[in-house]
Amino acid sequence: MSSEYITLVGIGPGSSEYILPIAQRAIEEAQILVGGKRALESFASKGQETFPITGKLEEVVSYLREIPDGKKVVVLVSGDPGFYSFLNYLKEKIPSRHLKVIPGISAFQVAFARIQSSWHDASLFSLHGRRIENLASFIEEKLKEVSRVAFLTDNRLTPDGAARLLLEEGFKGEVPLYVLTDLTLPTEKVEKMSLEELARSKEKGNSVVVLGDV
Question: Which superfamily does CATH assign the domain made up of 6-105 to?
Fold first, then answer.
């Protein structure tokens, strides 16, 4: 690693209105931007060098290690860098003294704000690119400990797909359920429904599902 440090910037759940001013300033001052295709399209300016994050994370690390000394480098990550993001992987590959983190607003923060609920006592996890064996039992056990559970979904396991999986696994309990999609974007949608109704619907993967009393 040649440059002084890499700044990981949380760019929030979607809308640029939800990006912190300090994060916006870091992006504008960066000489090199690293991020997903959509993030680079949204934030890269003329004159900035860019490098896309794909599924091959080792290529990103190799690129970062070869950056010349003194360059201002920003890595864009959706939501907050500290929650199911690129931070842990980078810390395994690059010494922490070379990293700087600027937090972002997570989809969970916005989701609980939309349903006017606290989330300090919620159990949070992600199904984005992940699977949990016996999801129904996992959530049932969590709901014995806390009043609400929330999880992120992706295009492989959408909210309706997760609902069908829970029903197949024999999920027990009638609890309120919210599906929040495309948060902060013009296409944002917030719905309250039963698990059965969700299983019969067709939802986007870019969603937060909240189960439990709010």
Answer: Tetrapyrrole methylase, N-terminal domain (3.40.1010.10)
What does the block give as tokens for 199? 């299983």
Find where tokens 């997903």 sit: 36
Per-residue pLDDT of 48-98, as tens digits, reads: 999 999 878 899 999 998 988 789 999 999 999 998 888 888 988 887 778
Q: Which residue has the tokens 């039992």?
A: 137
Q: pTM to 2 decimals?
A: 0.89
Question: Measured at the alpha carbon of residue 23, what is the angle toward residues 207 and 47, in degrees to the nearest 5?
Answer: 105
Q: How far apart are CA 84 and CA 144, in angstroms?
A: 24
Only one residue has tokens 């992706």, namely 154
Domain boundaries defined on the chain? 6-105, 108-212
Instruction: Note the pLDDT tens digit of each residue in 113-171.
Output: 999 999 999 999 999 877 788 999 999 999 999 999 999 999 889 999 999 999 999 99
Q: Which CATH class is domain 108-212?
A: alpha beta
Q: Name the H helices within 30-86.
A: 37-43, 57-65
Question: CB of 186 within 8 A of CB of 17?
Answer: no
